[in-house]
């Protein structure tokens, strides 16, 4: 029997079993992709809690027969979320070495297509090209400064703040970004430029865990890093954003106006630009959900719910129940 000091365990098991029942009901009416996503969320909750709460009272689980059956199963990690086919559908240009945006306990890479329209990108570029740039090492940490060679708009300039505010407005109006990031605070976007004539690149590094903005006094924990591409892929050679994780290296080079979101804890680099100029905006954010694994599952679940709403309608009883689970999981993990 679960004792009174184990409410989190009881709540976790209840959510897992509830979602398992909903998945069974959807097997008849839903596509394989939607069911697969729901199952990934279901097994992810098991993996996320690692059944570690069994260490609190392992015998407590014995009364939940469905969950007991899971304890002897060795679950595989998750399939790629933004594999090459999906990335191409969203307009992403991924070099041949890109093996897929793997989803697992410590990694989630999300591409957001068309955050800025082409006309707005052109306006950004015109304003930026007419402005003075400075050494990019002015905003780098001690280790990053050793491997950083690029230029950036002065972070405290009026232009940088104006363009940054336009980006934040686009972010907060983008459902995919909000679903993937669940943002609490967004650092004012910065802007950099890599020129082939100066051999610009940014060696392997990890972003600072905490960033502060002296103009606003804002301080954030950097849960996620973001790069918004402002140059088309055919404008330059090299300049790929390379993100390292336990699955290997992932090279990202997106159309102008597209954004990539990835864990700030990842080792990453920008390869040398050998032709043309690479222009981008970059920034960090603090999520309301600190844990990457939990945030990944929330994003998967929300994506599956939206697909079900398109097919079954927002008032479908089981869709309503899944939406309730979504909000209860956020309530369980959120930090505000």
Could you characterize the architecture of this molecule?
There is one protein chain. With 336 residues, the protein is an alpha+beta fold. The protein has 2 domains: 7-76 and 292-333; 84-287, q2cbj1_9rhob like domain (Jelly Rolls, Sandwich). Helices cover 38% and strands 22% of the residues. It contains 10 helices and 16 strands. The strands form 3 sheets. Strands 1, 2, 4, 5, 6, 10, 11, 14 and 16 form a 9-stranded antiparallel beta sheet that branches. Strand 8 (210-213) and strand 9 form a beta hairpin. Helix 1 runs antiparallel to helix 2, helix 2 runs antiparallel to helix 9 and helix 9 (292-312) runs antiparallel to helix 10. It is globular. The two termini are 33 Å apart. The model is unreliable at 1-7 and 49-102 (pLDDT under 50).
């Amino acid at each position: 029997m679960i004792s009174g000091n184990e409410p989190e365990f009881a709540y976790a098991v209840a959510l897992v079993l509830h979602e398992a029942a909903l998945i069974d009901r959807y097997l008849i009416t839903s596509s394989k992709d939607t069911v697969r996503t729901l199952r990934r969320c279901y097994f992810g909750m098991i993996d996320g809690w690692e059944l570690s709460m069994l260490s609190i009272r392992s015998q407590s689980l014995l009364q939940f027969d469905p969950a007991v059956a899971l304890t002897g199963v060795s679950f595989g990690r998750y399939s790629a979320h933004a594999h090459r086919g999906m990335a191409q559908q969203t307009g992403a240009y991924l070099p041949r070495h890109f093996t897929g945006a793997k989803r697992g306990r410590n990694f989630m890479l999300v591409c957001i297509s068309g955050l800025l329209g082409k006309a707005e990108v052109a306006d950004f570029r015109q304003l930026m090209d007419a402005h003075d740039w400075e050494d990019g090492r002015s905003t780098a940490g001690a280790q990053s400064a050793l491997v950083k060679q690029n230029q950036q708009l002065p972070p405290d300039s009026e232009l940088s703040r104006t363009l940054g505010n336009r980006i934040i407005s686009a972010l907060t109006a983008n459902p995919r970004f909000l679903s993937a990031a669940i943002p609490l605070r967004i650092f004012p976007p910065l802007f950099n430029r890599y020129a082939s004539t100066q051999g610009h690149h940014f060696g392997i590094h990890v972003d600072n865990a905490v960033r502060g903005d002296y103009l606003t006094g804002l301080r954030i924990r950097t849960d996620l890093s973001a790069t918004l591409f402002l140059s088309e892929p055919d404008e330059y050679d090299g300049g790929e954003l390379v993100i390292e994780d336990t699955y290997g290296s992932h090279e990202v080079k997106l159309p102008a106006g597209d954004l990539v979101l990835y864990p700030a804890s990842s080792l990453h680099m920008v390869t040398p630009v050998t032709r043309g100029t690479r222009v981008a905006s970059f920034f960090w954010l603090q999520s309301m959900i600190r844990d990457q694994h939990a945030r990944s599952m929330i994003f998967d679940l929300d994506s599956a719910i939206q697909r079900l709403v398109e097919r079954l309608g927002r008032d479908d009883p089981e869709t309503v129940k899944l939406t309730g689970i979504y909000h209860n999981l956020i309530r369980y993990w959120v930090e505000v």
